[in-house]
Structures are given as structure tokens and as C-alpha cells.
């Protein structure tokens, strides 16, 4: 069975094939066009672990953001008070992104919509790496499939969190994919939902200002 997402990248660059299991059709139909949330049955290994906002920060090291123009670290908003592991096993702290707008992209490796948007993310993320970081949050799939997705769509230059257990999906109340969650430089969530490639590019460019 062939996947339904484009097999060529905008501009004519060829995309490698993604293997799709024969049972995918039933899964996608049940998912109602990719509208699926995380379930308790997913593996719990190497998942994002949110820092509860009600917990005293004195219980551990106080997270700090990137230095501001004055040299002082930027305050860390509640939205960025979480840690995680990336798909390659690297520790990740969202606090390091404080003081800048941030885009969290919630995707699943079998989602055709996510696959079609991956090209845009792969193209614009390196350009805005230092001004508007784009961080992928992979869920609803197996780690091997997630890693294959990153390889096939050339997303290796962007941070991709392994959220197989759905900790961050639940934290931000994400119920479908592909979902983009945009946090402004003050830590306020200013968008949560679908964005096509053109809208995503326009919004990121505006945030980079």
C-alpha cells in the first residue's frame, strides 16, 4: 500500500518512500482524518516529563532562559517549564528557549498531513533556529517509525522530542495532529491548531521580526 502524502519535495527534490503497514487504513479511518489523542497504552520510555507548575522550583535547580540583551537570563514562563528526551536520546530543557518565540509541532509518523508539512518545517527551521526555534513533538507511534520519518523528511537539523507516552500532548491538551502550538517571547500561547505551510512560514517570519 502506498502512502497518500506527496513523494516529491516542493522544488522537485525527491522524497524517499515511507513504509506503511497494511493495517494503517483501518487505523486512519478510526482516527477521523488524523484526529487522535495519546493513549495510556503507549510506551513510557524516554518520554517528555513536564515540570508541574505547582511544584516549588527550590526542589531542584531553577531553570533559566537564554541571556537577554542585558546579560541576565530570561525568565522562564510556565509553558516552557518542562524537560524531555529527543529521538536521539539527548536531554532537552525547554527553559533554554525562554525569551524567544517558540513553535511546538505535534506530529505522528503515520499522519499524511504531518508528512506534507514536514517539508516546510525542514526548510524554514534552520533559517529561524536562533530567533524562532521550531521543536517537533513526536507521538502516537513507535520510536523506529518516528526516526524514519525524521530521516525521510530531512528533519535531522531540528530538535525532535520523543513523546511516545503523550506527556506533552496531555500537558498542552493537544487532541489531533498535525498541531502547531506557538508561544510568544513572553510565554503566552498565541496559536494552537492547524497551519498549512504558507501560514506557518508567514507566522514564523513575523515572530522573527
TrEMBL record:
Extract the ranges annotated as region (Disordered): 55-74
GO MF terms, alphabetically ordered? antioxidant activity; isomerase activity; oxidoreductase activity
Q: Which residues form the Thioredoxin domain?
A: 73-209
User: Domain of life, per the record?
Assistant: Bacteria
Record's compositionally biased regions (Low complexity): 59-73
What keywords would UniProt list here? Isomerase, Signal
Which Pfam families does the annotation name?
AhpC-TSA
> Where does the signal peptide begin and end?
1-35
Could you identify this protein by its name? Thiol-disulfide isomerase or thioredoxin
Amino acid at each position: 500500500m502506498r502512502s497518500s502524502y506527496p513523494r516529491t519535495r516542493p522544488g522537485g527534490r525527491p522524497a524517499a518512500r515511507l513504509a506503511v503497514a497494511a493495517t494503517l487504513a483501518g487505523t486512519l479511518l478510526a482516527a477521523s482524518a488524523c484526529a487522535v489523542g495519546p493513549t495510556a497504552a503507549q510506551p513510557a520510555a524516554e518520554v517528555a516529563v513536564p515540570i508541574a507548575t505547582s511544584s516549588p522550583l527550590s526542589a531542584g535547580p531553577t531553570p533559566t532562559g537564554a541571556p537577554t540583551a542585558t546579560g541576565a537570563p530570561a525568565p522562564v514562563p510556565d509553558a516552557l517549564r518542562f524537560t524531555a528526551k529527543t529521538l536521539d536520546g539527548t536531554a532537552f530543557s525547554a527553559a533554554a528557549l525562554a525569551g524567544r518565540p517558540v513553535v511546538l509541532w505535534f506530529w505522528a509518523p503515520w499522519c499524511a498531513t504531518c508528512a506534507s508539512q514536514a517539508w516546510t518545517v525542514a526548510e524554514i527551521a534552520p533559517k529561524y533556529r536562533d530567533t524562532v526555534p521550531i521543536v517537533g513533538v513526536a507521538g502516537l507511534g513507535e520510536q523506529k517509525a518516528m526516526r524514519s520519518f525524521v530521516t525521510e523528511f530531512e528533519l535531522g537539523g531540528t530538535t525532535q522530542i520523543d513523546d511516545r507516552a503523550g506527556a506533552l500532548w496531555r500537558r498542552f491538551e493537544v487532541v489531533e495532529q498535525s498541531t502547531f502550538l506557538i508561544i510568544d517571547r513572553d510565554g503566552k500561547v498565541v496559536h494552537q491548531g492547524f497551519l498549512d505551510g504558507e501560514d506557518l512560514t508567514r507566522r514564523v517570519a513575523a515572530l522573527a521580526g
